[in-house]
Amino acid sequence: MESTIVSSRNFNAYFGTNHVVKNVSMDIPKNNIIAVMGPSGCGKTTYLRCINRMHELIPGASVQGEMLLHDEDLYSLNPILVRLKIGMVFQRPNPFPNLSIYDNVIAGYKLNGFKLSKKERDEIVEHSLQKAALWNEVKDTLHKKGTFLSGGQQQRLCIARAIAMEPEVLLMDEPTSALDPISTSSIEELMHELKKNYTLVIVTHNMQQAARVSDKTAFFFLGELVEYNDTREMFINPKDSRTQNYITGRFS
Amino acid sequence: MERVSKIFSYGKIRTETAFKRTLVIIALVMVVITLGIFITLVVHAMPSIKALGFSFFWSRTWDPVSNVYGALPFLVGTLLTSFLALIISVPFSYAIAIYLGEYKPSGWLSGLLKNIVELVAAVPSVIYGFWALVVLVPIVRALEAKLGVATYGVGIFTSSLVLAVMIIPYAASLGRELIRMVPSALKEGAYSLGATRYEVLKHVILPYTKSGLFAGMLLSLGRALGETMAVTMVIGNTSIMPKSIFDPGNTMASVIANEFTEADRSVYLAALIELALVLFLVTVLVNILGKMIIKRFSNE
Amino acid sequence: MNRKNIHNQIKYRIARNKASEVVITIYSFLITIPLIAIIFYVLKTGLSKLSWQFLTNIPQPVGELGGGIANALVGSILIVLLATIIAVPFGILCGVYLSENKNAKLSYWSRLAVDVLQGTPSIVIGIVIYFWVVKPRGGFSAFSGSIALALMMLPIVIRSTEETLKLLPDTLKEAGLALGLPYHKVILKVIIPCGVSGILSGVMLSIARIAGETAPLLFTAFGNPYLTTNVLKPMQTLPLLIFNYATSPYDEWHDLAWGASLILLIWVLAMNLITKLITRRWKVQL
């Protein structure tokens, strides 16, 4: 049995009085890719943003229940500590427009005032960009602004920026929804590579993507976790009629 | 893992908390400063408010030597100069607004005009005053001679002319923004019915932007009411009630500028501060009203 | 209506359209006349005064040659600098609060306060600072003048900061926070640098505006015929010098005031120009 890294117990999230994540309990095993899918408004992104405590940044947002990282409640830790351990990649690529590609990669250290030697910095930048499969494309333009890259490259830069911090878990919120098909497939390939060192949680509304990349899939519907199983199993043999309806395209 | 523990420190958390608190305090201090201005004026105007009451506003004699303080000449002077300036400036500021907003939204000529308007706003008021004193006053004097009125040169009329130039940029740049906000669908609707540009302006653009243009006038008026230096230099500085627009006079701002450091009696000083209080309340009212109208306009 | 009538009507409407365009164009460019008249006059009378000694000497008594405006120039630079140092950090942070807490109750009142302060006549600010700083300290000082000018700068700096930061996407802030940056680092190292062109142009505009202010200095910095760099003493500034000498009856002093006007005008216009360049060059590509 794989070891669990993140798990939630009876977890609820709210926007004001709006109950958007309802009583979700799920275990996320280490070095796996977990796809979280469901129709829009089902609470999947909110659930993801609760894992690294980004949800609470929205005025009026609140949570209830347990979210554990290695049996330690994330909500008893300082959010900064949580976010250092759990990285995130967003729906739209968001490199820092005021920084170069190089500085974007080490932004987590640089902006935090963490001193690194030139050698260490160079190593981290090259290593992270290579892992993000961007190194060959940008190694000669490292000191140009990151915003000059294409959308797919920007997203891989954001992935490099997140993995430069060596997080234990990497959250991805529909990371390819703003990208073209070629960039999408290169990022999907990248996910397989990243799985060796990290645990990935990916929100997607694209069923094919969930089927292609993930080991396990969670299906959210109206804020509830309807079904959570091995991806293959879920797509071949869904247990819940709502999952079946979704997979067969009865509603989207 | 090791790196994380090195990056994270509780010192940072304390700084973060202190920073958030600083932001709140600063926003609070802004409120306190503004309230403080009002309270300071009220407190220091008290001796005059108590001694003179409402007669302050309609008594027409201001004679510090005999300890008599009536603010009516200054109220009249302020209103006359400001409204006259507004009336003079409106055709020009609206013309600029229409030109930049509708006729030529881009191109080098409108770029030039935009820069000119910005420069007009940038010239310091003391330079306007100085120039008016040396150049405009003789011209007005010649005009007064032709009209057969007393040839002071300085006075309400001269002040209004300078003020008019100074306030044009405010209504003009605001008006330009508003005219650009008119939905093109509305304009195209009118054009498709065969309307000329003049008719679109008159029947679509101006009615649509009416409230906003009025707000622009209010903001210009607020600016004119509070303007001190240029007016002080050319209004003639007399506390006698003006009988015509060519007479010299004083505005609330100019009488404060001239007499504040000379006020040797407590009631005298308090009377000047009461003028400042009135000026403050009126300009704030005019400004807030103008901004409210604009806000409502842009939200629609 | 017969064909000829319609034809005439259309002709009339086209003519009216043409006429209105001509009238509006003429009216809108008439503003150029006073501007050119003023700049021309200041150049004509001021240029002849300009010399090295004009900038380095202090004013001489009436009847003596070789007076300059060094005291006012130094005073203006010092007072404006001090005002900037006071107002800029305060203004930027207040702008940050307003853009970060758009719907907070405090933001509403703070915004209202900024609007009120912006509409407050400069002479009123002078009076208030007289009671807050000059009277408790027992005398006029450059420092009190700087505070008065700082109050005038604040609304411009606050508003330009708020408006600039409002336009930045929320994802930028989230990117920083998701990397484990503390809030103050996100603001100081991501948000403010990304809005730097808008914030800086607000700062420059506010400096240009206060550099020419006279009224708030009448009862604070007061003026001083001698050169001083002690900010706790009364100090001359360019606008104060222009005002005092322009309203004096002596021709020499008038000339001095014209020279000072030219310097002040160059300063203010240069600040406006720099603002334009900043907005163009430092714009962060989002």
TrEMBL record, chain A:
This is Phosphate transport system ATP-binding protein. It holds the Pfam family ABC_tran. One of its GO terms (molecular function) is ATP binding. GO terms for biological process: phosphate ion transmembrane transport. CDD domains: ABC_PstB_phosphate_transporter. Residues 6-247 form the ABC transporter domain. InterPro entries: AAA+_ATPase, ABC_transporter-like_ATP-bd, ABC_transporter-like_CS, P-loop_NTPase, PstB-like. PANTHER family: ABC TRANSPORTER I FAMILY MEMBER 17 (PTHR43423). The keyword Transport applies. It comes from Flavisolibacter ginsengisoli DSM 18119. Keywords: ATP-binding, Nucleotide-binding, Phosphate transport, Transport. NCBIfam families: 3a0107s01c2. GO terms for cellular component: membrane.
From TrEMBL, chain B:
The keyword Cell membrane applies. GO terms for cellular component: plasma membrane. GO terms for biological process: phosphate ion transport. Residues 75-290 form the ABC transmembrane type-1 domain. The chain crosses the membrane at residues 21-47, 67-100, 112-137, 149-172, 212-235, 267-289. Keywords: Cell membrane, Membrane, Phosphate transport, Transmembrane, Transmembrane helix, Transport. It comes from the Bacteria. It holds the Pfam family BPD_transp_1. The keyword Glycoprotein does not apply. InterPro entries: MetI-like, MetI-like_sf, Phosphate_PstC, Phosphate_Transport_Permease. GO terms for molecular function: phosphate transmembrane transporter activity. Its main location: membrane. SUPFAM superfamilies: MetI-like. It is found in: Cell membrane. Belongs to the binding-protein-dependent transport system permease family. CysTW subfamily. This is Phosphate transport system permease protein. It comes from Flavisolibacter ginsengisoli DSM 18119.
TrEMBL record, chain C:
Residues 73-275 form the ABC transmembrane type-1 domain. The keyword Transmembrane applies. Its main location: membrane. One of its GO terms (cellular component) is plasma membrane. The chain crosses the membrane at residues 21-43, 73-100, 112-133, 139-158, 186-208, 256-274. It is found in: Cell membrane. InterPro entries: MetI-like, MetI-like_sf, Phosphate_PstA, Phosphate_transprt_permease. One of its GO terms (molecular function) is phosphate transmembrane transporter activity. This is Phosphate transport system permease protein PstA. It comes from Flavisolibacter ginsengisoli DSM 18119.
